[in-house]
């Protein structure tokens, strides 16, 4: 426990940096909504309108994907971060992924709120927020872990500042990634079976009277 505490304390600056980068991505994504052309707005509005109508009349959420589709999407994200952390050149890629994740969430929520006002915000709260309350911290933890291991490689391979027990950091890095992946499997089950039910509850509010 003390080891975990001191490890977190030593990585505080990395956590702050990654969190700020993610938030910048969210803001950037929300601002991107204003850059959409009229044609793009109409296409998105038409797609969402058809989506809401299908949900309303069929009582089902279309194209949410199966459990393993959703799980694999999360695992691929974590796996990519893990792979990037194994190399020196992968360090910038980790930062790009964190920024991109923020952009995707910011754009989604920004468009829903801009298009449907408080109803869009309510839909975002039930469709985007619940699982991302777990996904985002997991990705940030994986990112910091990957950055830490990448910096460890730089010190030992590039700067030749070799330290004993080189296998221990890799083992810790691997175990942490596996634990985070297991958590995402649980999140995927929530996203598969609980989120669609909440979406069906809110969707009628978004349809024209």
TrEMBL record:
This protein's record includes keyword Membrane: yes
Transmembrane region(s): 12-33, 77-97, 104-128, 134-154, 170-190
Keywords linked to the UniProt accession: Membrane, Transmembrane, Transmembrane helix
InterPro entries with a match to the protein in the record: SpoIIM, SpoIIM-like
Pfam families reported in the protein's UniProt record: SpoIIM (PF01944)
UniProt superkingdom: Bacteria
Protein name listed in UniProt: Stage II sporulation protein M
Annotated source species: Paenibacillus xylanivorans
